[in-house]
Amino acid sequence: MDDGADLVSTIHNDYQELIPDILGGTEETTTGVIRLRAMAADGALKFPVVAVNDAKTKNMFDNRYGTGQSTLDGIIRATDILLAGKVFVVAGYGWCGRGLALRARGMGADVIVTEVDSVKALEARMDGFRVMPMEAAAEEGDLFCTVTGNIHVLRKEHFERMKDGAILSNSGHFDVEIDIPALAALTEGVRKDVRPFVDEYTVAGKRIYVLAEGRLVNLAAAEGHPASVMDMSFATQALACEWMARQEPRLTPAVYDVTNELENGVASLKLASMGIQIDALTDEQQKYLADWRHGT
Amino acid sequence: MDDGADLVSTIHNDYQELIPDILGGTEETTTGVIRLRAMAADGALKFPVVAVNDAKTKNMFDNRYGTGQSTLDGIIRATDILLAGKVFVVAGYGWCGRGLALRARGMGADVIVTEVDSVKALEARMDGFRVMPMEAAAEEGDLFCTVTGNIHVLRKEHFERMKDGAILSNSGHFDVEIDIPALAALTEGVRKDVRPFVDEYTVAGKRIYVLAEGRLVNLAAAEGHPASVMDMSFATQALACEWMARQEPRLTPAVYDVTNELENGVASLKLASMGIQIDALTDEQQKYLADWRHGT
Amino acid sequence: MDDGADLVSTIHNDYQELIPDILGGTEETTTGVIRLRAMAADGALKFPVVAVNDAKTKNMFDNRYGTGQSTLDGIIRATDILLAGKVFVVAGYGWCGRGLALRARGMGADVIVTEVDSVKALEARMDGFRVMPMEAAAEEGDLFCTVTGNIHVLRKEHFERMKDGAILSNSGHFDVEIDIPALAALTEGVRKDVRPFVDEYTVAGKRIYVLAEGRLVNLAAAEGHPASVMDMSFATQALACEWMARQEPRLTPAVYDVTNELENGVASLKLASMGIQIDALTDEQQKYLADWRHGT
Amino acid sequence: MDDGADLVSTIHNDYQELIPDILGGTEETTTGVIRLRAMAADGALKFPVVAVNDAKTKNMFDNRYGTGQSTLDGIIRATDILLAGKVFVVAGYGWCGRGLALRARGMGADVIVTEVDSVKALEARMDGFRVMPMEAAAEEGDLFCTVTGNIHVLRKEHFERMKDGAILSNSGHFDVEIDIPALAALTEGVRKDVRPFVDEYTVAGKRIYVLAEGRLVNLAAAEGHPASVMDMSFATQALACEWMARQEPRLTPAVYDVTNELENGVASLKLASMGIQIDALTDEQQKYLADWRHGT
C-alpha cells in the first residue's frame, strides 16, 4: 500500500533549496524505498533516509496484516460480493500479496497467485496457492487484485481473456498497476458508479468492473489500514527520527536500515500493549548460543 | 532440523591438518551457521564456507515445509495420537517453528507459541497463535515440541507444571533442548519404550512422555524430510560448491551468503519440475522499477 | 441472522382473520422455525409452513458463509479494528456461529467458542477452537459476538469480568442476546456514537463498546448477506411456494421440510451459475449402492 | 472408513440360524448402514440394529477427524512425499471426505474435490476447494484418494489421463473404489512393492502408484484411527447396546437412530475427559426458547 513515490518525487522537485537544512527523513512505503535506493545509486539523494518500510516491525505487520484485511474490506464495501467459492487472483507475493492471499483464503476464496520472482512463486505454491502466469489466471478469476508496486500488471491481453463479471482492483501503489487507458480503449461503453467506487466496462460483450478507478482500493473504498497495525509503523518512524537526530556525526546521504534494537523495542512495546509476555534467554542459553565449542 | 554443530566441531577438532587443502565448505543447518559465524568472529575459521542454510531456497522451504510435515509425522508414528482438539506447544518461531505451528493448526490443534524474540513473538500472535511464556504454556499443553537450536528450553520448572499425559519432543537440534537429566532427577520411575520411541516418566504422580529420548523426532521416529523438499537444499549445496570452485582468486576464510542468481536458478528449476510457469517482467516494467523519476 | 420471530408474532397477532385464505407460508430464519414448531406443538399454527431455514441450501450456505462474512464486515466497518491477533469470542456454534468462527480465524483472530450443547462444543474443539464457559471467555475476549437465537447470552456477570476496550456485537437474532439494560444499569456513563454504530459504556473504570445497540450488526453496520448467497435462500423459498401450491390435497397446518429433490435442484442451478460441473453416478454405481448383497 | 459391508454380508450368509436369539446389533460404518437400510426395505433384516455410524458422536468425529488424520498418515508413511504444493484430489465430500480435504489443505496441498451430490459439491466449493468432474481432476492430480463408499470411482478413463507419478489410494471402503483390474489391464508392467505398500503400474509410459492394493490406506499403511477418537464411537456403541437391552417390549427388526440423550451423554463425557467445561442454559433461556410468544 503505497503512495510513497509521490512523496519522493515531490521532495526531489520542490524542496531542493531546503535540503541543506534537512537532518534526514524516513520512508514508509516499498515503492518509495525502491526509488530512494535508485536515487542513491544515481547520486541524486541529498540527505539520509531511514528505510522504515523495510523494518520487520513495518512490512511484516502493516504490509501483510494491514493490507490483507483492509483490501478485502475495500472490495467488500465496494461490491458486497461473497468471497467464499470465488476465484481470487492476487498479483504479487510480497508482504502485501501474501497478506492478501492468506486473508482471501481465510474468507473461503480459491486463490491464485501470479509472480515474476521464482523464489516467491515457489513459496506461494508451497503455501498451497495455485500459481500460474496472468494470461492463464485471467481466464479463471472472479476477482483480481494487484499488489506489485509495478506498472500495467493487468493489461490488454489479460482484459481480453477475462470472464463476464470480473472485478479488478489495486492495492499495490498508485493507479498504474491496472492499465485503465488500455481498458478504456478496448471498451464498447463505460457505466460509471454502478455502485459507489465501481465502474463497469464492456469488452466484447463482457462486463468488467474496476474498483476505485484502479487507485488503492483500501484507501478509496474503506478506511485504509486499521490504527491497531499502523501504530507499529508510526512508532518505528518516530523512533527512527529520534535515532537519526542522536547520531554523531550527522549521517551522510544514503538509505539506512532500522536497527535491530529499535525493532525489538517497538515489538516489545506492542506486545506489552496487548498484554502478552514472552520468555527471556537464560544465562546458560545465551552462553550456549555464543559458544561454537559446544555440541559434541 | 539440525545436527550441524556436530559437523562443525568435528571439523574443528579432527581435520586441522587437512585444512590448507580444503577449497571450502557449505553448511546446511541453522545451528551450524551460528557456530561458524562465531568461529569466524573468533578467528577460528580456517576456510571459506557458504551458508547454504541461510539461502531462501533452503530455510524457507526445507526448514519450514519439511520440518513442519516430518515432525508431525514422527510424533504421530510414535504416539498415534489425534492432533485435533489438542493443545500443541511450539517452542521457537523461526522457520522450523512456523512450519510446525502452521501444520499443527492444519491438523486441528490449538497451537501455543513460545519465543524469546519480540518480533517473532508478535508475528506468531498476528498469525493467530497464542503466545505466552513456557511457564504458562507448560500448564496447558498436551504436546510440546522444541525447535529453537538452544539448550534446556524445557526444564525442571516446566516439567513440574505439566499435566498428566504430556508428550514432549524435539525437532530443533540435538538432544539438549529438553533437559532430560533434570527430568530423570525429578522422576519417581521411568518405563522405557511403552511404545517404540516413547519413554514414560512419572513426576509427582503424573506421567510425562518423552519421544526419541529428546533427539530429533522426525529423524528418529519417521524418515526425516521428504526427498521432494530436500532436493532444493541439495541443489543449493551442489551449486554453491560449483560457485566456490569457480571464484578467482580463491575465497578467503569467512562465511559467505548464497547469491541471488543461484537462488533464483534453484527455484526456477524446482518450478519447472512441478510443471509451473510464471510471469516475466516486461521491458516497460523493468524500466519502471529502475527509474525513480516516475510517479507523479 | 434473524428477525423471523417478529414475523411469526405479527402473523399471530394481526392476521387471524385472513388465515383461512392463506395457502401456506415459508420461514427463512432459525428463530422463526423454532417458534413455529412451538406454535404447532401448542395447536396455535393455523396454516402450513415450509421450514426453508432448515433446508441445507439455506442454513448451510446463507447462515454459515453469509453470516460469517457479513458479520465481520459489520464489525470492521463499525470499528475499523484489525482482527489479526485479537481474541474473538463467538457465542454459539450453530451454522451462523461456525461460519463466523471460521472466518474470524481466517482473518487471523484467536477464536474462543462458547456453547450449551455438548456435541457442538466438542465439534468446535475438534475444529481447533478454544471452548470454555462465557465467564472464563469474558476475561480474555477483545471482541464478542452472539449468534445463539437466545436471550441474555452476555449479561451482568460477564460485563463485570471484561477487559477495558471489549467490543460487543450480536449477529444472532434481535437485540436481546446482549442484556443491554443490565449493562446500562452497571454503567457509570454512556457516550453514544463515539463512531457511527458504536456506544461506549464505562463499567468500573473500564470501557465496553456495544455495536449497533445490540441489534444485528451485519444488517445495521454493513449490508446484510451478499446477494450471491441470498440467491440460494430465495430460490429455495420461491420453489417451496410452488411445491406447496402444487400439493393435492392442500397441506394441513404443520411445519414441513424442504424436499431433497428441491434442494438438489437449487444446488444444481447454483453450481451451473458458477460454471462448475460435477460427476454423475454410473449405472454400475447406482446399482452397487442399492444392492446390499455386494461386498464379500 | 469402512469394512462394514463385509460384516453385514457375513451376518446375512452365516448366522441365519442364530438370529432368533439375537437381541439386536449396532453398525459402525456408513456402507454398513446403507446396506442395512436396503435390507430393511427388502424385508431381509431379521433383527433390530442401531445405526451408530449415523450418530453425530460417531460420524462427525471418527469419520471426519479420524479419517482425515489417519489417511494422510498412511499416505505419508507409504510414500514419504511432501504434501505442500501438491494437487490432492479427494473423491467424495461426505464426513470422511471433508475431514480429508480439510487436513490435506492443512498440510499445504492444493485440494480438488469431486462429488456426485450437488449440495455437497456446492459446500466443498464454498469451503474454498476446487470442484470438478474426475475426468478433469485426473489430469491435474499428484495424489488421489477415494472416500465414497462406492465402486470404480477411479477407472479406465481416469487412469489414461493421469500425469506421470500419480499416487492413488483409497480410504473409503474396501478395495473396489479404485478399479485395479482395469488398471492391470491397461498396464505395460507392474513393479510390486517399490516401497512397502506401493505398487508401480506403467500405463502408456507413465508411472501410476497404487497404495495398499487399493485397500484402506489408513489401516494398511498406518494404524487406523487414533484411539483418542475411536473412544467416542465405541462409547456410542456400548451405550447403544445398553439402550437396546433396556427397551420394553423388545425392538422389532428395523434400523434405529441413536437418541439425542445418548449422544449428549457421550459428548459430555468426552469434554470432561479433555478438561473442558461449557455453559448451561439459564432458566430464563430455557423458557425463552420454548415460548413462541416472545419477540415483540
| Main sheet: strands, sense, barrel of chain A | 8 strands, mixed
Q: What is the subunit organization of this protein?
A: homotetramer
Q: Element order, helices and strands of chain A? A: HEHEHEHEHEHEHEHEEEHHEHH
Largest interface: A-B, 68 and 68 residues
Q: Provide a count of the helices of chain A.
A: 12
In helices, the fraction of residues of chain A equals 40-55%
Percentage of β-strand residues of chain A: 15-25%
Count of strand segments of chain A = 11
Q: Give unreliable regions of chain A as ranges.
A: 1-11
> What's the mean pLDDT score of chain A?
90
- The largest beta-sheet of chain A arranges its strands as 5-4-3-6-7-10-9-8
Distance between the termini of chain A: 49 Å
Query: What general outline of chain A do the C-alpha atoms trace?
Result: globular
Cα radius of gyration of chain A in angstroms: 22 Å
Question: Which structural class best describes the helix and strand composition of chain A?
Answer: alpha/beta
